[in-house]
């Protein structure tokens, strides 16, 4: 995953932050591509593959060790695991609360490349809409969320976001 580079959509969102410093990205992705593109306010609901933690105790997160071998905790020797939420595990409540607050206080909510059905992420666009934000659905096709959006744009994030940014801040 370290060889994967941010696409034009990731870069456009990072550029959007230059125009609107309060931009907050809520993502279910674990790849860290938003940060690699330059975004600074990213809520990673499912964690990140870029750091590891002790599988036996809370000894804090560390960068991935530079070794091809299975990494072990330097405190208790238990295997280290990626800082991601596995199937059946609970999401971090602080991240859910931060995403909820961002959804409640935004003026515009871009729902990008989401099915709009996986909770709790699927609730955030509707929370934003309930708090009078403009909901814009950017996706390859319609989803259950689409009918609630003020605007519906069809295509990939890499196609749509740079065009949206250029149209909004054309010089």
UniProtKB/TrEMBL annotation:
The broad enzyme category this protein falls into is transferase
Where's the Deacetylase sirtuin-type domain? 1-171
Pfam families the UniProt entry points to:
SIR2
What molecular function terms (GO) are annotated for this protein?
A: histone deacetylase activity, NAD-dependent; NAD+ binding
Source organism superkingdom: Bacteria
Q: Which UniProt keywords apply?
A: NAD, Transferase
- Give the EC number(s) listed in the UniProt record: 2.3.1.286
Name under which the protein is recorded: protein acetyllysine N-acetyltransferase
From which source organism is this entry? Herpetosiphon aurantiacus (strain ATCC 23779 / DSM 785 / 114-95)
